[in-house]
TrEMBL record:
PANTHER family according to UniProt: ALTERED INHERITANCE OF MITOCHONDRIA PROTEIN 41, MITOCHONDRIAL
InterPro entries: Asn/Gln_tRNA_amidoTrase-B-like, GatB_Yqey_C_2, YqeY/Aim41, YqeY/Aim41_N
Lineage: superkingdom: Bacteria
Species of provenance: Pseudoalteromonas tunicata D2
MF (Gene Ontology): carbon-nitrogen ligase activity, with glutamine as amido-N-donor
SUPFAM superfamilies: GatB/YqeY motif (SSF89095)
Annotated protein name in UniProt: GatB/YqeY domain-containing protein
Length: 148
């Protein structure tokens, strides 16, 4: 079952259950996906839909930080609920050990020896880790490996 189908089925289930938080998060995700399809005049594949969901989760995390700084814990809690709904559609996150294995594999595949090769390593890893790990964290780990 495709990710888009899962989202639309979950939307129907949330409507039936009158779950406003889930329904709002799913509708927002579907609207963003539809907007990307219209803007690019394309049909998004699974990887593109996953990247949309990752972007939405990241936006929610940024919003939580802002709401907590402003003392709006009620809104921060709503955003956290939306994150949990959106994350249920994302692939299982990679463990620290799996990320390090991916990095080591990519470094050996492209023969990277210094920081100038970081782009090559990131290119290999990004497609495999998209939606499964924080790309910024991966970048930091690659820097550590290449500087060692």
């Amino acid at each position: 079952m495709s990710l888009l189908t899962k989202l639309t089925d979950a939307q129907k289930d949330a409507m039936r259950a009158k779950d406003k938080v889930s329904l709002g998060a799913i509708r927002m995700a579907l609207a963003e996906i539809k907007q990307r399809e219209i803007d690019g005049q394309i049909t998004l594949d699974e990887a593109a839909i996953t990247s949309v969901l990752v972007k939405l989760v990241k936006q929610r995390r940024d919003s939580i930080d802002q709401f907590e700084k402003a003392g709006r814990d009620d809104l921060a809690q709503t955003e956290a609920s939306e994150i949990s709904v959106l994350e249920s559609f994302l692939p299982k996150p990679l463990s620290e050990e799996e990320i390090l294995q991916l990095i080591d594999q990519a470094i050996s595949d492209c023969g990277a020896t210094n920081m100038q090769d970081m782009g090559k390593v990131m290119g290999l890893i990004k497609s495999q880790a998209e939606g499964k790990a924080d790309i910024g964290k991966i970048s930091g780990l690659i820097k550590q490996r290449l500087n060692a």
